[in-house]
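Action item from last meeting closed. Structure (137 res):
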């Protein structure tokens, strides 16, 4: 049975809009997963102390047969395939893919916390999540 996962996409390097579009295409090709809805794209200021350009952010609602860990592993693979280099925490990135929420599950494992611990601190995630929740039915 497919479950609903909310995944945040962000980019602040290069052609940000094209990177978001490419990430959506690759996410849609994950086996047992479909994009059921996508939020509007919004531009936000960077978070943290590292000087960098503003981000384009979007959230997608997935219906997936994958469990949270398997989904995270596939999303991290997409980041790597698209050229993301993790050089410094909170630094600039071509693409960032985060599981924000996964149905009503609470997960606390090394490298995976759901709901995402930054959700309460990111107004744009809260707006995007609210936009997508009516499609989760």
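Sequence:
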């Amino acid at each position: 049975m497919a479950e609903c996962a909310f995944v945040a996409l962000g980019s602040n390097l290069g052609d940000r809009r094209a990177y978001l579009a490419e990430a959506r295409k690759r996410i849609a090709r994950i086996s047992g997963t479909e994009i059921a809805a996508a939020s509007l794209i919004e531009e936000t200021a960077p978070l943290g102390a590292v000087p960098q350009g503003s981000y384009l952010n979007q959230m997608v609602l997935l219906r997936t047969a994958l469990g949270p860990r398997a989904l995270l592993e596939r999303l991290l693979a997409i980041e790597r395939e698209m050229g993301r280099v993790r050089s410094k925490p909170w630094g600039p990135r071509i693409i960032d893919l985060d599981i924000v929420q996964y149905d009503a599950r609470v997960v606390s494992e090394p490298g995976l916390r759901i709901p995402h611990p930054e959700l309460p601190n990111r107004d744009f995630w809260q707006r995007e999540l609210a936009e997508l929740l009516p499609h989760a039915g």
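Note appended to the action item: The domain at 3-135 is CATH 3.30.70.560 (Alpha-Beta Plaits).
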